[in-house]
Amino acid sequence: MNVIQTDILIVGTGCSGLFAALHAPKDKKVLLICKTTLEESDSFLAQGGICVLKDPSDYESFFKDTIRAGHYKNRRQSVDIMIQSSPDVIAELESYGVRFTKDAQGNFVYTKEGCHSHPRILFHEDITGKEITSHLLKEAKKHKNLTFMENTTMLDILEEDNTCYGIVAKKEEELFAIQSDFTLLATGGIGGLFNNSTNYPHLTGDSLAISLRHHIALENPDYIQIHPTTLYSKKKGRRFLISESVRGEGAKLYDKYGKRFADEVLPRDLLTQKIYQQMKKDDTRFVWLDMTVLGKEQILSHFPHIYQHCLQEGFDCTKEWIPVVPGQHYFMGGIHVDAYSRTTMDQLYAIGETACNGVHGENRLASNSLLESLVFARRAMKDLSIKTAKICLNFENLIQTTTKDLDVTKYASMVREVINKKKEGRKMNSITMSMNVDTLILQALREDVTSEDITTNAIMKGYQSGSVQLICKEDGIIAGLPVFERVFQLVDSKTEATFFFNDGDHVHKGEVVAEIYGDIRSLLTAERTALNYLQRMSGIATYTRQTADLLKGTGIRLLDTRKTTPNMRVFEKYAVKVGGGYNHRYNLSDGILLKDNHIAAAGGIRQAVELAKEYASFVRKIEVEVENMDMVKEAVEAGADIIMLDNMSIDQMKEAVQYIQGRALTECSGNVTKENIAALASTGVDYISSGALTHSSKILDLSLKNLKAV
């Protein structure tokens, strides 16, 4: 196979890829490849504009607008970096010839879009993305160390020991490898996976599928933004965006009766919901957008390309309303990166829409995307420029291993599956507790911190922001992530955590499970307590899953017991549920279980059951523990709802189940382990309860590593 060698490889030629290339060291060879042509990136399509910190007094407002739009799911450190970097980025763009709109005195003209509290958006007509990206491309072509390769598709990365050494690619029908010291993924969004999208159809999330293949962490892949207003059309293909600036300048939305039904400058996700609701109510495929209120002069000067495109579709937006419908627009999730755009794989970076640095949170604030892409692309190149790359000792062998079972036809379904899985995971309540969990966690913290963390205080003299990664050191089931995060938050409420897995997910050795951000002092102080909870709960979930898997197909439910660690029951029983088991009684008020000593105290099984029925509500089930066939018969005759076969032999239990014949539910208990559960299942009982789930499972080995200041 032919091999192309370069110092730096950039996959994608949108604004992030081009801006990164322009900051590459001049003595380094940089190769930029793209799936189609250089101009076919979503960066060229951006209409509205690019945000900027126009003066220091706007910082707080800019910051709040961003995190409010993102539903406070943003990584605040990343938001701060973006805002603070914006004036320098705008100055650099102007140096390349980008023409932002200015007034007669040469001052910037700022516009305002949805969810912005103040005008802070620079623009060039209604084609700001094209204005910026075309000038970046023009500038990049002047640099002799930059080379471009069009119509080239990345098929996979070349990775060994969690280090990226390049990619496998295809141009026309030729398969070849590109060997690089550093690789930057700038492959754009996922619009090609949707029937109705403003994106180019070739943007199908290939980088995400490749990341899944190589266990590179993803972040919030279900954070997908639907733009409220795309021009409705019966034609197939990409939908034309009607910029949010149109509504920011005063355009109105109407239902089929010509009545306003929503605030036009709501955050995009909220306005999209309003439009979908109105379409359903009116039984229509679109709603109306009135641009005529802006006046013909403003439409022709500020939105000339929207005007022209509407004319092509048969609408004169200076004289009539136009039909609009929501369409997939932007991807806020993606490949997890840190503040320098580093992925969880060495020598591999991700920038632009394919990356998730946490700036946008759950919903992107209008006109932040171009700025975010440029800021973090520049940081990526500056970071890798000071690094020394590892060398692959047998590159040819690596190529053969990578291409042996390569099947890119599965990529789209892989991405859809991970998006849907994340959505389903968010529908579930991550943790339900019946007691004050904070009180329990604080008690655990007090075991470690009675007065101070003397070690941390000795080496850390003051605040220093940083991050640390949660690494899995063996395969297992993760459980307790909300508890893990809560420990850090109780030490310092400003601490943030980004999780790449949900409770119940299978994790593998070496995978990054989460990244935690905050004051390094707080990270160090909370570390041990947080890990104690997570390791213990994940160990229980892992053992439970292994045991429950042995019961698949039998219809038998695996139950836990009250044999739990003092003050840990709420956590341990939750972990059992995460692992696929079911909770027996949580405490003594949850149900009636007549054990040997209760029966002795009452004078026999019949008497105990009668007393229980008399005392308890008719809705309470009564369970009786038995040890032999005589007790089984007595329990059945007394009218027990559930009969627990405790420490009986396999043959005895089979006889008991046959005798009971459905007159009561049956439960097997006593010395149940993973090793003997298959034999116990053969008895035909309805439930098997095992104290081993909580008292005999070992911890799952997890650790916090790679602490660094940021």
Q: What's the CATH class label of the largest domain?
A: Alpha Beta
Structural class comes to: alpha/beta
- CATH homology superfamily name of the largest domain: FAD/NAD(P)-binding domain
Which overall shape is indicated by the principal axes computed on the Cα atoms?
Answer: globular
Tell how many strands the DSSP assignment holds.
Answer: 28
Largest sheet: 7 strands, mixed
The fold-level CATH name of the largest domain is FAD/NAD(P)-binding domain
Strand content: 15-25%
CATH architecture of the largest domain: 3-Layer(bba) Sandwich
Low-confidence stretches: 428-435
C-alpha Rg, in Å?
Answer: 31 Å
How many domain units?
4
Helical stretch count?
A: 23
Q: Helices, strands, pairings?
A:
Layout: E1 2-11, H1 15-22, E2 30-33, E3 50-51, H2 59-69, H3 76-95, E4 121-122, H4 128-140, E5 146-149, E6 152-160, E7 163-171, E8 174-185, H5 206-213, E9 218-219, E10 224-231, H6 244-248, E11 252-254, H7 268-282, E12 287-290, H8 296-302, H9 304-312, E13 322-331, E14 334-336, E15 348-350, E16 355-356, H10 369-384, H11 395-403, H12 411-427, H13 437-448, H14 454-459, E17 465-472, E18 476-477, H15 481-491, E19 496-499, E20 506-507, E21 512-519, H16 520-549, E22 557-559, H17 569-578, E23 592-594, H18 596-602, H19 605-615, E24 622-626, H20 629-638, E25 642-646, H21 650-660, E26 665-669, H22 677-681, E27 687-689, H23 692-695, E28 702-709
Parallel strand pairs: 1-2, 1-8, 2-5, 8-15, 14-16, 22-27, 23-24, 24-25, 25-26, 26-27
Antiparallel strand pairs: 3-4, 6-7, 7-8, 9-14, 10-13, 11-12, 12-13, 17-21, 17-28, 18-20, 19-21
Helix pairs in contact: 1-4, 1-10, 2-3, 3-10, 5-12, 8-9, 13-15, 13-16, 15-16, 16-17, 18-19, 19-20, 20-21
Cofactor: FAD
Pathway: Cofactor biosynthesis; NAD(+) biosynthesis; iminoaspartate from L-aspartate (oxidase route): step 1/1; Cofactor biosynthesis; NAD(+) biosynthesis; nicotinate D-ribonucleotide from quinolinate: step 1/1
Organism: Faecalicoccus pleomorphus
